[in-house]
Design brief:
This protein is α/β, with parallel strands linked by helices. It has 2 domains: 1-36 and 214-260, no CATH class; 43-193 and 262-276, Spore Coat Polysaccharide Biosynthesis Protein SpsA, Chain A. It is 42% helix and 11% strand. The protein contains 8 helices and 6 strands, in the order αβαβαβαβαβααβα. It has a 6-stranded mixed β-sheet with strand order 3-2-1-4-6-5, with helices on both faces.
Length: 281
């Protein structure tokens, strides 16, 4: 029998090699899918033939840059008459409600509505017929999902910003659309994104009177510690999501051993989901 130290060393070696293989697969997947600038989406140029899409954005509280993040879905390069946007919030007392109303007013050409979960007759009142459990996100988006105009559903969290061509590229991937001469593309039943995080600097602290000369080193140390406590979590999250997480996320999805999805931005067909679940009526 091997001594304990050799056994532990062998286990560490096997674990290290496994992690190294996953890292190599993940980095290869990143270069494979994201090393080239994507071509213009096909579906964006289809006009009236473009598939209809319902964009559902659950909202809770006033997130940093909330207006810009949600406005990015209003500015998509996609036929406007094929896009419906539903902004879902618990009630009009939510801190984000004024921002959502402003967004709807600022983009009058877009079919957009603010839906309040507290006014959903299927969840509240004498005619309530649905039992969806306590999950606030599911309850918020329930009405938007039930009343979706198109078969294609794009659920995207309120703190996600997307570029103008994202909707078109997602529809292309979901429907299997490709440019002429590229050959037939494989359609998918579910489309998601590689998530990246950008740390947003916090608001500046209120001005304070300068410390006396004798107290300046201590004040500087306190300031550095305060900045670390204030910004360290966001910076750590940004670093992790752009390094370790992105490699493991890419590796697991490339190998396909198990579903690996971050539920920040997902697109699917309502008809596909209804086939394997009990449809909500």
């Amino acid at each position: 029998m091997w001594p304990l130290i050799e056994t532990a060393a062998l286990a560490c070696l096997v674990w290290t090699l496994a992690v190294l293989v996953v890292q190599i697969v993940g980095i290869s997947a990143i270069f494979r899918f994201f090393s080239r600038r994507p071509p213009p989406p096909v579906s964006s140029g289809l006009g009236r033939d473009a598939p209809a899409v319902t964009i559902i954005r659950p909202v809770k509280g006033s997130e940093p840059h909330l207006y810009d993040c949600i406005a990015s879905t209003f500015r998509q390069d996609y036929p406007a008459d094929k896009v419906s946007i539903r902004l879902c919030v618990e009630d009009e007392h939510d801190a984000a409600y004024p921002t959502l109303k402003k967004l709807v007013d600022d983009f009058p050409a877009v079919d957009a509505q603010v839906l309040l979960e507290s006014r959903d007759p299927a969840l509240h009142g004498p005619a309530a017929s649905l039992e969806l459990g306590p999950n606030p996100k599911i309850r918020n988006i329930s009405r938007a999902y039930r009343e979706a105009k198109g078969d294609i559903i794009w659920i995207i969290d309120c703190n996600v910003w997307v570029a103008k061509g994202v909707l078109g590229r997602m529809v292309d991937k979901l429907a299997g659309l490709s440019h002429e001469g590229e050959g037939a593309a494989k359609p998918y039943k579910f489309v998601h994104h590689m998530p990246l995080v950008v740390d947003v600097p916090g608001r500046p602290e209120p001005d304070v009177s300068p410390a006396p000369d004798a107290d300046r080193p201590a004040a500087a140390a306190d300031g550095a510690l305060a900045r670390m406590c204030r910004n360290g979590g966001g910076r750590l999250d940004e670093m992790f999501m752009a390094t370790t997480h992105v490699k493991f996320y890419g590796a697991i999805n490339a190998v396909g051993v198990a579903p690996c999805i971050v539920g920040k931005s997902n697109m699917f067909r309502k008809s596909h989901l209804d086939r394997v679940t009990t449809p909500i009526t």
